[in-house]
Amino acid sequence: MNELECLGALRAHRHEVMNALQVVKGYLQLKRVDQAERALDRLSDRLADFARLQGAVAPEEADILWCAITLGRVRIQRWTTGVCRTVAQVRAVCALLRAVESCAAAGGIDEVRVSAGAEGGDVWLRIAPVMGADDGPEGQRSRDWWHTVQQETARPGVRWEPAEGGARVVRVTG
Predict the structure, then answer these.
(1) Residue 134: how many CB atoms within 10 A of its CB?
(2) Which of these, 101, 170, 107, 99, lies nearest to 135 by C-alpha position?
(3) What pTM does this model have?
(4) pLDDT digits 0-9 by tens, 56-78
(5) Gap between the Cα atoms of 120 and 174, Å rounded
(6) Smallest Cα–Cα separation from 110: which of 70, 73, 69, 68?
(7) What is the pLDDT of residues 89-131, one digit of tens each?
(8) Where does the signal sequence lie (predicted)?
(9) Percent over 70 (pLDDT), the chain
(10) Ramachandran assignment for 136, one of left (phi > 0), alpha (psi -120 to 50 degrees), beta (any other)
(11) E strands of the chain, at which residues?
(12) Number of folded domains in the chain?
């Protein structure tokens, strides 16, 4: 990632934090203390996710951290140090996370939880959208969202596995 991209990531992160603080301030002005506390908890959780990720990424995976900072809906909750062995894997994972972010925004999904690990030279990501009660009959919204994500991320070296309890695992080779 070059300097301009790093500055853009920092700008996006600052913007996200400032927006969250404005929401808290608004709730407090309206005397909705419970909602203000929930908003602060969400911000605190998000910052804790970044701190964990920062401590886990290997130096050659630093672009993953910069990528995560720019994502408003995707939360990387678990990352094992050294998951990505190659620059190509780092780039593929960042592209995949950005596509998931874009699909979440388009699908009205506020949060997507991601865990990552490595197995046999492949990177795996467990991706779990947080769906609300408005998922529709038999989870139609969820199925539609997954279909879109798989279409948007279809490229060589990306392989989706069958669903497991609302989440899916994607493997990135190379």
Answers:
(1) 7
(2) 107
(3) 0.82
(4) 888 888 889 888 888 889 999 89
(5) 11
(6) 73
(7) 999 999 999 999 999 999 888 899 999 999 888 999 999 998 7
(8) none
(9) 95
(10) left
(11) 74-78, 112-119, 122-129, 158-160, 168-172
(12) 1
Query: Collapsing DSSP states into helix, strand and coil, what is residue 144?
Result: helix
How far, in whole angstroms, is CA 64 from its chain's centroid? 11
The token pair that represents 101 in the structure block:
């972010």
Nearest-5° angle of CA 143, CA 146, CA 136?
30
CATH code (residue 26): 3.30.565
User: Alpha-carbon distance 65 to 54, whole Å?
Assistant: 6
Q: What distance in Å separates the CA atoms of residue 47 and residue 69, rounded to the nearest whole number?
A: 10
DSSP string, 12-59: HHHHHHHHHHHHHHHHHHTT-HHHHHHHHHHHHHHHHHHHHHHHHS-G
Q: In whole angstroms, how far apart are CA 81 and each of 3, 14, 54, 88, 105?
A: 24, 26, 10, 17, 28
What is the crossing angle of helices 3-29 and 62-70, to 10°?
40
